[in-house]
């Protein structure tokens, strides 16, 4: 086993602290990755603080991982030592169910194995994520990261990128479609950039107009404040697709009213409490309300290649390991444009 430095949450209420963890010995299909950068996702914070249910501590989170291959198992064929690679939100799945066979590992009928806070079927241990110096992952869940994408910024594509790319593709965002992005944060700013690159006409719906310049710079054609009731009148029945990235309670009736006939509102934000849906808003215009979770491995690779082709990167702020707890407070205060990335050298 390999001992590596990491930052772990000791409990739901204490700050993350420096520690060491064990990575398993390389199996024949495993890849050892020296981590270069790890993104901070809002899900990391929800998980360590127990917002989504009790977890086992200590827990190392982080599911936006980029680095280089330093060792490969005897049967590995997809990756070589020195390759620049990434790992996202899952590290394994059954590989045999109809979802896995269709390349939708995120919807594995046995449940995919999450990068952290999952149970590793190999040995029953709790998986530990990317706030660490290195990680061991089955080659099938390791992505190629194109060299043209700045390694210091690319990590958030592994969660925020694919989480928004997948529904935009599934619901055919492109030339001639009107897309609204609700929430201009880590997920939302990626949704804007990707939807624009797909050719859609993109509107940002943010709480205030504070981020309007950013929205327009990333290619949106409009930015509206949702704290202004006039927004909902002006934009009624406008959008073919709404991507809701907000993980808090919103007025579903108001947002569904912004959909055109047969439009779809997709939740990628995950509020802990149920949302109330006035069903008439769906029925009277044949609208749909849907959900979407990350994307399959093949689609994640497609997203990385798409972002390389279109020069799409997240907006990031680099922090050291010692700054993780401060960064968490700033994420909770929406004081980041738009994603923190940890320099893994500082775990040393
Ligand atoms: Zn995430
Ligand atoms: Zn499966």
Bound molecules: zinc ion
Instruction: Determine the number of helices (DSSP H or I, runs of at least 4 residues).
Output: 10
- CATH class categorisation of the largest domain: Alpha Beta
Q: If you compute it from the alpha carbons, what radius of gyration comes out, rounded to the nearest whole angstrom?
A: 20 Å
CATH architecture of the largest domain: Alpha-Beta Complex
Overall mean confidence score, pLDDT: 97
Rough outline: globular
- At the fold tier of CATH, the topology name of the largest domain is Quinone Oxidoreductase, Chain A, domain 1
CATH homology superfamily of the largest domain:
Medium-chain alcohol dehydrogenases, catalytic domain
Brief overview:
The chain is of the alpha/beta class and 348 residues long. It contains ten helices and 17 strands.
Main features:
six-stranded parallel beta sheet, alpha/beta, 348 residues, Quinone Oxidoreductase, Chain A, domain 1, 22% helix, 10 helices, single chain, seven-stranded mixed beta sheet, Rossmann fold, binds zinc ion
């Amino acid at each position: 086993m390999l001992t590596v430095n990491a930052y772990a949450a000791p409990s739901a209420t204490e700050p993350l602290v420096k520690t060491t963890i064990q990575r398993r010995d390389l199996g024949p299909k495993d890849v050892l990755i020296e981590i270069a950068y790890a993104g901070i996702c809002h899900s990391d914070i929800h998980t360590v603080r127990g917002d989504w249910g009790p977890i086992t501590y200590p827990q190392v989170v982080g599911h936006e991982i980029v680095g280089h291959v330093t060792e490969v198992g005897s049967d590995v064929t997809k990756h070589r030592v020195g390759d620049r690679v990434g790992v996202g939100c899952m590290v394994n799945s059954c590989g045999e169910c109809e979802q896995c066979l269709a390349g939708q590992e995120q919807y594995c009928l046995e449940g995919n194995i999450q990068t952290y806070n999952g149970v590793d079927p190999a040995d029953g241990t709790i998986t530990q994520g990317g706030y660490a110096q290195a990680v061991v992952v089955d080659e099938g869940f390791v992505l190629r990261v194109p060299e043209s994408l700045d390694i210091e910024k690319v990590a958030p594509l592994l969660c925020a990128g694919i989480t928004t790319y997948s529904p935009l593709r599934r619901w055919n965002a492109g030339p001639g479609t009107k897309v609204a992005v609700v929430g201009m944060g880590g997920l939302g700013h990626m949704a804007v950039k990707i939807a624009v690159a797909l050719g859609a006409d993109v509107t940002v719906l943010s709480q205030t107009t504070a981020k309007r310049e950013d929205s327009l710079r990333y290619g949106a054609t409009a930015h509206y404040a949702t704290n202004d009731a006039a927004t909902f009148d002006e934009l009624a029945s406008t959008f073919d697709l709404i991507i809701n990235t907000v993980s808090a309670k919103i007025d579903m009736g108001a947002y569904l009213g912004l959909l055109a006939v047969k439009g779809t509102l997709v939740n990628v934000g995950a509020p802990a409490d149920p949302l109330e849906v006035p069903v008439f808003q769906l029925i009277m215009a044949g609208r749909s309300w849907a959900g979407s979770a990350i994307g399959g491995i093949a689609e994640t690779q497609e997203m990385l290649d798409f972002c390389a082709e279109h020069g799409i990167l997240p907006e990031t702020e680099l922090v050291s390991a010692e700054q993780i707890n401060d960064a968490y407070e700033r994420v909770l205060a929406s004081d980041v444009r738009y994603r923190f990335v940890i320099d893994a050298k500082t775990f040393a």
